[in-house]
């Protein structure tokens, strides 16, 4: 009885400390992702790509958009050069951690020029800084419009399916 009474404060303060640590790391990660989105909105090419890991992957809304960092830079450069890339404003974000706290993943709802989109990503610690290693952007479709959207994209999807199966 006495031992459990003595362990309670230790367990309580350990859990409390971990929760505070997680909250602080979540804030840092949110700041990184917000800065990444802001760099795109301001067409700051170097800042945008500087927040990504060297081996980062970006998956866009089109089924053919699965780029490594070098390919994505090539795609994005003309957009950034025009002075405006894209503008993603977070509406909601959830952040999670691996047990060793070296990897984090998140999902977010975004207000964009494409209306509401969903982003999800993975961040890794590189030299004590969080870097975006993987990001997936998708256009959200309300369930009641799914059948209409499927009809709209059926022909192009069928062509791509055929090509990918070869």
Which descriptors apply to this entry?
Nuclear Transport Factor 2, Chain: A, alpha+beta, 166 residues
What is the helix fraction of residues, given as a range? 40-55%
Number of domains: 1
Which CATH architecture would you pick?
Roll
Strand content: 25-35%
Major sheet details: 6 strands, mixed
If strands are numbered along the chain, what order do they take across the biggest sheet? Answer: 2-1-6-5-4-3
For this structure, the CATH topology is: Nuclear Transport Factor 2, Chain: A
Overall description:
A six-stranded mixed beta sheet has the order 2-1-6-5-4-3. It has helices at residues 2-41, 45-50, 69-81, 146-165, and strands at 52-59, 66-68, 89-97, 103-112, 115-126, 129-139. The protein starts with a helix and ends with a helix. It has four helices and six strands, in the order ααββαββββα. It is globular, with a radius of gyration of 20 Å. 48% of the residues lie in helices and 32% in strands. The chain has 166 residues and is of the alpha+beta class. The relative contact order is 0.13. A hairpin with a 6-residue loop joins strand 1 (52-59) and strand 2. The chain has one domain (2-165): Roll (Nuclear Transport Factor 2, Chain: A), CATH 3.10.450.50.
């Amino acid at each position: 009885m006495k031992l459990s009474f003595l362990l309670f404060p230790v367990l309580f303060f350990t859990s409390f400390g971990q929760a505070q640590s997680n909250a602080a790391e979540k804030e840092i990660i949110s700041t990184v992702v917000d800065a990444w989105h802001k760099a795109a909105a301001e067409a700051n090419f170097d800042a945008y790509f500087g927040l990504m890991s060297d081996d980062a992957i970006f998956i866009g809304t089109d089924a053919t958009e699965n780029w490594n960092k070098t390919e994505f830079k090539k795609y994005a450069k003309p957009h950034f050069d025009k002075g405006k890339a894209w503008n993603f404003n977070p509406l909601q974000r959830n952040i999670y951690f691996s047990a060793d706290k070296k990897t984090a993943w998140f999902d977010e709802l975004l207000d964009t020029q494409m209306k509401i989109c969903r982003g999800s990503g993975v961040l890794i610690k590189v030299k004590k800084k969080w870097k975006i290693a993987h990001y997936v952007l998708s256009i959200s479709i309300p369930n009641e419009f799914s059948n209409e959207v499927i009809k709209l994209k059926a022909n192009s999807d069928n062509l791509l399916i055929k090509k990918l199966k070869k």
